[in-house]
UniProtKB/TrEMBL annotation:
GO cellular component assignments: efflux pump complex
InterPro entries named in the record: MdtA-like_C
Coiled-coil spans in chain: 98-132
Species the sequence originates in: Eiseniibacteriota bacterium
Gene3D superfamilies: 2.40.30.170, 2.40.420.20, 2.40.50.100, Helix hairpin bin
Protein name as catalogued: HlyD family efflux transporter periplasmic adaptor subunit
Keywords: Coiled coil, Membrane, Transmembrane, Transmembrane helix
Ranges of residues in domain Multidrug resistance protein MdtA-like C-terminal permuted SH3: 329-372
Length: 393
């Protein structure tokens, strides 16, 4: 009985002691946590290193393609059209000097023959006048000689009246021949004008003529525009003109078809000297010579009226520091991370702003760290730390 009573009293106590020992063993076996010291305090920022570089100023604009020359063709002679080139349709192309229309020439050929006959007749009359003048001079010289030999009187100055020597008649014959030659030239010119030729490499915008139609100098038969020379008029802010050499700077003209972009090379040719009242934009003309020769067979044609973008390669800026445009703060300030990992707010001189960059002329040095991250409550001396690769990812 006594033994059983001790067991009932000590049993639970032994169980508690064993459990305490087991817990102590487990606690001693656990690894102590590694306490990682926090990185130095400060706002996390992303920075870039300022680097000196050269940048070419690129001025961007947009415009539409227009022909340099566009002419309305009118015949210079009257007549019935007896031939029209099958290419004389809207969109048809002609090379310089290629014939595209012919007017019936029979009347003008007859006029040439008549003028040639008049020239022959005038030449004959001139020969007769020259012969008569020669005979008259000989007769006069004979009279003078006879009188001298006979001593029968004086001939005065021994020069007769010009009419005696047929000089006016000779001049009249010469003038008639010149007039006949002029008439022949006019007749030949009118005959040549029965053929109409392309004045330059061109394309037909529209035509209004058909074989059998009677035309004259008052009738427009076609409108042609040049394809060997096109222009794009670009509206630019007046301030942009100081960065461009006019004429001379290369201009890249880009056509976006929606699936692919194609680029042609031209030049800044001239400023129109007219500022738009709306927008205060100066009109700059970019010129492209032979755009069809610059592309391969798979490129589309640079059609008249096509909307294009233009990038003018302007002046080269040397020894400037380009930084992201977003890093420019209010009042042309930038935030610098100093060697002591503190914030410095510094004014800079901006040479030019582009859509993506600010080109800094003064206020930054090579190797300085420019802060990209926006900071709330930024103040000089604020503690900073850079974003580690792990934190950035």
């Amino acid at each position: 009985m006594a033994v059983n009573r001790r067991f009932h009293i000590l049993g639970p106590l032994l169980v508690v002691i064993v459990m305490i020992v087991i817990m102590a063993v487990f606690l001693n076996l656990r690894k102590k946590p590694v306490i990682t010291p926090r990185n130095g305090g400060g706002a996390l920022v992303e920075v870039i290193e300022a680097k000196i570089a050269d940048r070419r100023v690129v001025i961007e604009g947009a415009g539409t393609v227009a022909p340099r020359y566009e002419v309305t063709v009118m015949p210079q002679v009257n007549g019935r059209v007896n031939w029209v080139s099958p290419k004389l349709v809207a969109g048809g192309e002609f090379r310089e000097g290629e014939e595209f229309l012919r007017i019936e020439a029979a009347d003008y050929e007859l006029a040439v023959q008549q003028a040639e006959a008049q020239v022959a007749q005038a030449e004959f009359q001139l020969d007769v006048a020259r012969a008569n003048a020669t005979i008259a001079r000989g007769e006069w010289d004979l009279i003078v000689s006879t009188r001298k030999n006979s001593g029968s009187g004086s001939t005065g100055s021994q020069e007769p009246n010009p009419l005696v020597l047929h000089q006016p008649q000779l001049r009249q014959a010469e003038a008639d021949l010149a007039l006949a030659h002029a008439a022949l030239s006019t007749a030949q010119l009118n005959l040549d004008r029965t053929h109409l030729y392309a004045p330059f490499d061109c394309r037909v915008r529209r035509q209004s003529i058909a074989p059998g139609q009677v035309v004259g100098p008052a009738n427009a038969v076609a409108v042609l525009y040049a394809t060997d020379l096109v222009e794009i008029e670009v509206g630019l802010p007046i301030a942009d003109l100081e960065w461009i050499h006019v004429p001379g700077d290369t201009a890249l003209v880009t056509l976006d078809t929606g699936q692919k972009k194609f680029t042609w090379k031209g030049i800044s040719h001239r400023a129109r000297g007219v500022v738009d009242e709306i927008g205060c934009l100066e009109r700059l003309v970019v010129r492209l010579e032979n755009p069809s020769h610059q592309m391969d067979d798979h490129a589309p044609e640079l059609s008249i009226g096509s909307p294009v973008t233009v990038q003018i390669q302007g002046r080269m800026l040397k020894n400037i520091i380009p930084i992201p445009r977003s890093s420019i703060r209010e009042n042309s300030m930038v935030w610098i991370m100093t060697a002591e990992n503190t914030l410095e707010i510094r004014p800079v001189t901006i040479h030019r702003m582009t859509p993506t960059e600010a080109l800094i002329a003064d206020g930054l040095a090579q190797g300085e760290k420019v802060i990209l991250t926006p900071l709330s409550g930024a103040a000089p001396g604020m503690r900073l730390r850079t974003i580690s690769p792990k934190e950035r990812s």
